Amino acid sequence: MTVSANDSAADSKSSLRGLTPLEAVLFDVDGTLCDSDPLHHHAFQVMLQEIGFNGGVPIDEQFFIDNIAGKHNDDIARILFPDDIPRGLKFTDDKEAMFRKLASEQLAAIDGLYRLRKWIEDQGLKRAAVTNAPRANAELMISRLGLSDFFQAVVVGSECEHAKPHPDPYLKALDLLKASNEHAIIFEDSPSGIKAGVSAGVPVIGLTTRNPEHLLMQAKPTFLIKNYDDPKLWAVLEELNNKRT
């Protein structure tokens, strides 16, 4: 059963029955902990325009969603530079350096993130960040958000056999935490990430941070929320908490 962002809390609660006892919570980073996609879009837009990509016409948000958002840099390099992959890989490395400069100045947490952090800590749950971003990016964002001591593991797609949308990064995180996929939940904001979580056998709560809801629903999340203050999320967490006590 999948539930959209506009469906009821009752539907969301019923979709997670049997999850208890909850052991672990796994988070993507970009777009899930922080609204970083506009920074990525800006960096790609500026740098691609500088080299005359697309005839010098800046890439728009739809191009970014279709070809870049949530994807690993190896895949982005192949999409943008299909005839010169080494150039594409060098380009994405340079773009990440520009992103880190922007992120160090402009990064902000998704609404309600620190409220959810407290709930997770109060429940004594295990937690990991799982991302397709380069480790330098992930560690910068996590540090800027004040979450370095919160996460017990940070798993990076490039350090796994396969990055998202394959399940490997989430399976690795569960293994590191010694947690079961039957007693964990994932927060994700991209179709690629949702597919990875679903393939790992874990219920995925999708965030409608930037990606269109219909694209997220195609990846089969358990349900969608707007942010971590969404009443639908807290109705589910309250029920999970009641079942633990």
From TrEMBL:
Its cofactor is Mg(2+). GO terms for molecular function: catalytic activity; metal ion binding. InterPro entries: Beta-PGM-like, HAD-like_sf, HAD-SF_hydro_IA, HAD_2, HAD_sf, PGP-like_dom2. Keywords: Magnesium, Metal-binding. Coiled coil: none annotated. The keyword Magnesium applies. This is Haloacid dehalogenase-like hydrolase domain-containing protein Sgpp. The lineage of its organism: Eukaryota, Viridiplantae, Streptophyta, Embryophyta, Tracheophyta.
